[in-house]
Amino acid sequence: QLHEQYGDVFILPLGEVPLVVTRHPKQISSILVELGDTHDFPRPPNVIANVQTLFGRALIGLDGEEHSKARTALNPHFFAPASLRRMHAQAAPVVAELVDKLGEVAGAGAVETYFFEELLSIELVGVLNLGHRFNGIKAGQYPLVLQSLRLVDRLFLGRAMNNKWREQEKETDTMAFDVSKGVLAACFQASLDGAKTEAGKERTDSAALIWRDQKLTETEMVNQLTGFMAG
Question: Is the pLDDT confidence value at 39 over 70?
Answer without folding.
Answer: no
